[in-house]
Write a sequence for this structure.
């Protein structure tokens, strides 16, 4: 977490709480919060809570659908939304989207929003430890991020950051202090267990012991490409149709082959994830997008190519099964 002139950041119990705090601070009667159809479900839940407590506030959704040709297509979607609705007050932008694992052109979107005097809240859950971050160049108004996803900390270790040029106070949804400063709002939380924050220096030291983020990124990026190529060849499918500039270094969506007994809905994805865990002892993330099921590959330095080969063979064995619930653990 950087500390520069014009910047200020504090720990939070989770980026969802931090993001909700940022969004709620700036809403008035008649305002609109702009979100996307790719947002993490907790984002929509947070907006729903804001609508309940702030009468007259509404949400508007930017639909970012694949295939995507280039980043300009995404920026234009935001421009159209801002052009068509002068009431947009807050824009929530996913740095890396939850549904389709797309790295959005955040800096360009922030620059656009500044021209429309819209407050920008960046949901950077997957950013720390995954992509290089330079908050003072991004010039967003708020940024929230998680350390537990890619920086080896326990769950709940996150931060909320506010650009000091934003004069409006940032208040935690729960605080033991009446004061408006960030330390009082986010660091005085009564009996909350803060041990996850104490683990962050050790996590940073561990990353340095492995050669730093640059070496970790090189390993993960290479492994992800190898795993993707292997599964695409094995399953005779393809990756999600987005430009390479929008592919996060450690995440990739690969289309699953058709599996008997399963459709392509979110419910089918959830059921198949349960089946993979119960019958093959594989914990995998599946997504429903464009009427297809995709596996969201994630790589970290504790993974190797054999992990993804096991996943590939498990899916191949499922392709030959006739019914759900009659599978055996025949690959591990």
């Amino acid at each position: 977490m950087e500390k520069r002139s014009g910047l200020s950041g504090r720990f939070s119990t989770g980026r969802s709480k931090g993001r909700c705090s940022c969004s709620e601070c700036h809403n008035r009667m008649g305002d609109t919060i702009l979100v996307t159809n790719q947002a993490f479900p907790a984002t929509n839940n947070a907006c729903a809570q804001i609508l309940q407590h702030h009468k007259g506030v509404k949400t508007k959704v930017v639909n970012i659908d694949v295939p995507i040709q280039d980043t300009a297509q995404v920026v234009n979607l935001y421009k159209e939304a801002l052009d068509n609705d002068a009431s947009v007050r807050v824009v929530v932008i996913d740095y890396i989207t939850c549904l389709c694992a797309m790295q959005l052109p955040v800096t360009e979107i922030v620059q656009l929003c500044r021209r429309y005097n819209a407050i920008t809240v960046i949901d950077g859950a997957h950013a720390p430890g995954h992509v290089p971050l330079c908050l003072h160049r991004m010039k967003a108004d708020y940024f929230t991020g998680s350390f537990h996803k890619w920086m080896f900390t326990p769950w709940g270790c996150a931060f909320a950051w506010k650009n000091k040029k934003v004069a409006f106070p940032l208040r935690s949804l729960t605080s033991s202090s009446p004061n408006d400063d960030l330390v009082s709002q986010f660091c005085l939380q009564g009996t909350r267990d803060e041990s996850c924050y104490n683990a962050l220096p050790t996590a940073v030291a561990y990353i340095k012991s492995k050669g730093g983020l640059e070496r970790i990124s090189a390993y993960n990026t290479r492994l992800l490409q190898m795993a993707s190529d292997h599964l695409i060849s094995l399953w005779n499918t393809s990756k999600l149709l987005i430009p390479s500039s929008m592919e996060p270094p450690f995440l990739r969506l690969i289309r699953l082959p058709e599996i008997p007994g399963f459709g392509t809905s979110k419910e089918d994805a959830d059921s198949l994830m349960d089946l993979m865990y119960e019958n093959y002892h594989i914990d995998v993330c599946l997504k429903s997008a464009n009427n297809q099921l995709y596996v969201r590959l994630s790589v970290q330095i504790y993974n190797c190519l054999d992990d993804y080969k096991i996943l590939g063979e498990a899916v191949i064995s499922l392709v030959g099964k006739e019914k759900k619930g009659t599978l055996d653990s025949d690959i591990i």
Q: What stands out?
A: Confidence is low (pLDDT under 50) at residues 1-7, 322-332. The chain is about 40% helix and 15% strand. The first helix runs from residue 15 to 24. The first strand starts at residue 7 and ends at 12.
